[in-house]
Amino acid sequence: MAPAAEATIVYTPAQLIMSRLTTINLDLNGDGIVDFQAVNQITQLTSYEFATSLQIAAAQVGNGIVANQGERYFAARMRPDVPIGPMVFKQGTTRYGNLFKRYCVRACSSWSSIFGPWAGNVNFRYVGLKFLIQGETHYGWLRVDTRSAQGEAIITGYAYETVPNKPLLTGKTSGPDEPIPVSSVPHDPQPATLGMLAQGSSGLVAWRRTSGYPEV
Predict the structure, then answer these.
(1) Smallest Cα–Cα separation from 55: which of 15, 29, 18?
(2) Which domain holds residue 185?
């Protein structure tokens, strides 16, 4: 009998809560190098206006996050069984991977807007990743649930492919797997303009009403 093929996907279950003002270091392959950071931060925009953002950020040069096409500051919300490979990173997302943003005014007793591809109650969706191991590119994913009204997200697991430059499917937790085609991230038809961003939260509310965040 032929020997069994060695598994090439390494999966780690998790329950990492991105609560207010937290930073979580993610070392996907356990080599002591932080590959990504999950950050929940608050930024003061004006004397009475604040923003909360949840972000998956690359911690090393050469690492990246699959982004919404045309809006590279947001991480694409990926369904299960979607290929992650070279083409999905063509927009470049080295330091940006926002899940959602919230804006508030005055004492922040309520939120004037919540927007982004991960806004709402999102379950069992994935952030696509690429990162370097000893200078070679590997692909992986984070499984994330979000509760944007509470300003939280939970990372419930992550995985990566041990074979350099080999694509893997979102949600796949063991290998080996069959060769899979590489797909690109769908086009986001209307990115935020500098004019909208300059308007502050009012401009961003208008953008959220007219722009879709398609799942990948």
Answers:
(1) 18
(2) 9-210
Distance CA 210, CA 198 (A): 17
Tally of domains in the chain: 1
Answer yes or no: are the C-beta atoms of 30 and 177 closer than 8 Å: no
Q: Tokens 């499917």, residue?
A: 169
Going by their DSSP bridges, the two strands 152-161 and 168-169 should be labelled as unpaired
pLDDT in tens, 193-212: 334 334 444 444 433 433 45
Structural domain includes residue 215: no
Domain membership flag for residue 68: yes
Dihedral of CA 204/208/210/212: which sign? Answer: positive
Give domain status of residue 38, yes or no.
Answer: yes
Q: What is the pTM of this model?
A: 0.78
Comparing CA positions, the residue from 157, 148, 160, 142 lying closest to residue 77 is 142
Write out pLDDT tens, residues 140-165.
999 999 999 888 999 999 999 999 99
Paired tokens of 150: 């509470």
**Token pair belonging to 30:** 């356990």
In a domain, 79, yes or no: yes
